[in-house]
Amino acid sequence: MIPFLKITIFVYIPIVLMSCTGYQNNNNNNVKKDANETLIKANQKLVKTESGQIEDFISRYGWKMNQTGTGLRYMVYKNGSGVKAGKGMIAKINYTVSLLTGELCYSSDTGGPKEFIIGKGMVENGIDEGILFLKTGDRVKFILPSHLAFGLAGDGDKIPAKAVLVYDIELLELK
To answer: Looking at the whole model, is its pTM more than 0.90?
Structure first.
């Protein structure tokens, strides 16, 4: 009788453990799914709120801006006559960066012109995307929703968390 009991225990315990593990995985999957749905809804609400703030801002200034699928808004207000920007090129720009409140964060007047390789992630995603619409000599206004700028964290200095940024850029040179 004892050998039968040993076999029963060896067979029964793994089945119980597998059942419990399966139950936990289902619960964990449900918890993860609920958490993901909550985060998605929160992000959708943030994007909608930001979009409304951006539209109000644009309306106040009477700007006629284009919008990309990512949410970047742009308006070329002075056309240049140079070469068109492309990935891998080195762009040199003059710029100002402001919040929607009008507070100036950064400027090439104090920091000098900025150079970066287009498409290499050396600047905010919105700038990498928007610069491709330009040619040398263009002056443009970009409005970057927070997810195309510094996101949830800000830059740790002058740009706060979840900040929408307004850029005024002049594309000086492409190499």
So the answer is: no
